[in-house]
Structure formats: structure tokens, C-alpha cells
Automatic annotation (TrEMBL):
SUPFAM superfamilies: MetI-like. Keywords: Cell membrane, Membrane, Transmembrane, Transmembrane helix, Transport. The chain crosses the membrane at residues 29-50, 86-116, 128-150, 156-176, 203-228, 260-281. PANTHER family: ABC TRANSPORTER PERMEASE PROTEIN MG189-RELATED (PTHR43744:SF12), ABC TRANSPORTER PERMEASE PROTEIN MG189-RELATED-RELATED (PTHR43744). It is a multi-pass membrane protein. The keyword Endoplasmic reticulum does not apply. This is Sugar ABC transporter permease. It comes from Micromonospora globispora. Residues 92-282 form the ABC transmembrane type-1 domain. CDD domains: TM_PBP2. InterPro entries: MetI-like, MetI-like_sf. Pfam families: BPD_transp_1 (PF00528). The keyword Transmembrane helix applies.
Length: 297
């Protein structure tokens, strides 16, 4: 077994905790009751969205309102996808493309930049990191006009490139990955790999990436959800086009003098399903990333 392979396996191991681990305390009835109430409050809006999405206009006018799902979900969904001025099916495809590309780019560039700030020594690193952190204090709305002008000069306004390009790397992602790498990748591990003859990219690929996998899951989910739910910038740059994102399409469903809420919430429910799938797939890695990010090696 080569030394770099051994180092990679060491990098995948969890940070050791000093001292004896505390004994787990069994949760009481009050804890489970509190969790159940919290879950009901969190899940009720999604359930109510589904109830409206499966109901008719007559059911919505009833008092008290219906709390049991109806049988009109497919009918309402067919109406949403058949509207000629909303392009809902295309908007879902566009959202998948934008969110996937942005998430993949953020995971690569932010982890690479975080590794550079955490473990490489170069002139001006502290000043650059301070600049990255300071950009987090600037609201995105302040750059909308300048961003629109830049995208116009590039000829990208009205295309998905204008939605994808501004999100390819984020200051939060760089800062988060830098902090996680500092806490979970020992300096000795990196130096041992260098002595073994590993290049910087080899260390990044074989040691850093396997170690920060939980953090990548957390950042990936946060980025995917934020990109999928982004509304302001896609609305501005894709205004008047035939290929909006899902949030813009839902806004189009809710526009007009008379809003058909069963259509709006049917579309909103379908647009929420990919987020629930992402949470279901990456839930375990997310919890692991949060727990390991709080432990210093």
C-alpha cells in the first residue's frame, strides 16, 4: 500500500475525541412530545398545500375549510402543464439545469478555495479571506443593476447563462469549507503527503475531498435549495422569455386579476418535490456534516 493511499484512508477517518465519551441520556416523554409538535408545525404548510392542490374551487369556498385531500390533483396538474403562457414543464427542466450546474460548481470551487485558504501559505491570504468574509455583509440586491448591465454587455440577459454565472462560487461556501477543513484536516497529514511526493491537487483529491464529504453534502443541499428557490434575479433577467425557472412560473400562475389557487398550489407542490428528494437522499450526510463540523481535530 502506498503512503498516499494510507494517508487518504487516514483522511477519511473521523476526528478522535479526547477523554471518555459521555453516556447517552434517554429522552423523556416531553422531548418526544415537543419534537412531534415541532414536526406538525413544520409539515402542516406542505400538507395544506397538497390539500388545496387536490381540491376543487367549490371545496375551497367551504366553511370550515377542507382538511382532507381531494381527488382532483391530476386534473389540476394537467391544467397547470397545459397553460400556454406559463411553460411550467420547461421551467422545471430549467430549474433542474440551473440548480445542478450551480451546485456542482460551488462544491468544486468553494472546496478548492477553502483548501487553499486553510492549508496553503501564500502572500495576501489573510487579506483575501477578510475580503471574502466582508462580501457576506453586502446585500445581493445592491448589485442587481450592475449585474444586469454586465450580463447585457455579455449578451446573456434572457438566457440561463445569466442565472447560472453569478452563482458559480459563493463567499459563504468558501468561508464554510475553509472553516471545516481547518477543523478536520490536520496540518501534519498534509505535510506527510508532501513528503511522500504528492502534489497539491493530489492532496486535495485523495485526502481533503474524502474527509470533507459531510460538509460537501451540507453545502450542496443549501446551495441547491437556495438556487432552486431564487426568484428575484431570474425574474429580472428572464422577464419576457419562454423559458423561466420554476419560481418565476409559479409567480406567473399567481398573477392576473383572478387567481386560481388550486393551480398555484399544485404547481408549488410539484416544485417542492425535488427539494424533498434532496433532503431524503442527503439527510444522513447533512447530520454527519453538522456534527463533525463542531468537533475540532
Amino acid at each position: 500500500m502506498s503512503a498516499i493511499t494510507a494517508l487518504g484512508k487516514r483522511g477519511r477517518s473521523r476526528p478522535a475525541l479526547l477523554g471518555r465519551a459521555p453516556q447517552d441520556t434517554p429522552a423523556g416523554v416531553g422531548t418526544y412530545l415537543l419534537l412531534a409538535v415541532t414536526f406538525l408545525f413544520a409539515a402542516f404548510p406542505l400538507y395544506w398545500m397538497f390539500v388545496i392542490a387536490t381540491s376543487t374551487d367549490e371545496a375551497l369556498a367551504k366553511l370550515p375549510p377542507a382538511v382532507i385531500p381531494g381527488d382532483q390533483f391530476l386534473v389540476n396538474l394537467r391544467e397547470v402543464f397545459s397553460l400556454q403562457d406559463v411553460y411550467f414543464a420547461a421551467s422545471l427542466v430549467n430549474s433542474v439545469i440551473v440548480a445542478t450546474v450551480v451546485t456542482a460548481s460551488v462544491l468544486f470551487f468553494c472546496s478548492l478555495a477553502g483548501f487553499a485558504f486553510a492549508k496553503l501559505r501564500f502572500k495576501g491570504s489573510r487579506g483575501l479571506m477578510l475580503f471574502v468574509v466582508l462580501t457576506l455583509t453586502v446585500p445581493n440586491q445592491l448589485g442587481i443593476v450592475a449585474l444586469y448591465i454586465v450580463m447585457g454587455k455579455l449578451g446573456w440577459n434572457g438566457t440561463l447563462l445569466a442565472v447560472i454565472a453569478p452563482g458559480l462560487v459563493t463567499a459563504f461556501g468558501v468561508f464554510y469549507m475553509r472553516q471545516f477543513i481547518v477543523n478536520t484536516v490536520p496540518d501534519e497529514l498534509v505535510e506527510s503527503a508532501r513528503v511522500d511526493g504528492a502534489s497539491t491537487m493530489r492532496i486535495y483529491a485523495n485526502i481533503v475531498l474524502p474527509t470533507i464529504r459531510p460538509a460537501l453534502a451540507v453545502l450542496g443541499l443549501l446551495t441547491f435549495v437556495a438556487t432552486w428557490n431564487d426568484f428575484q434575479w431570474p425574474l429580472i433577467t428572464l422577464s419576457g422569455t419562454d423559458f423561466p425557472t420554476s419560481m418565476v412560473a409559479i409567480s406567473d400562475l399567481a398573477s392576473g386579476n383572478y387567481v386560481i389557487y388550486r393551480r398555484v398550489l399544485a404547481g408549488a407542490f410539484i416544485a417542492t418535490v425535488p427539494l424533498l428528494v434532496m433532503l431524503f437522499i442527503g439527510g444522513r450526510q447533512i447530520v454527519r456534516g453538522i456534527m463533525e463540523g463542531a468537533v475540532k481535530s
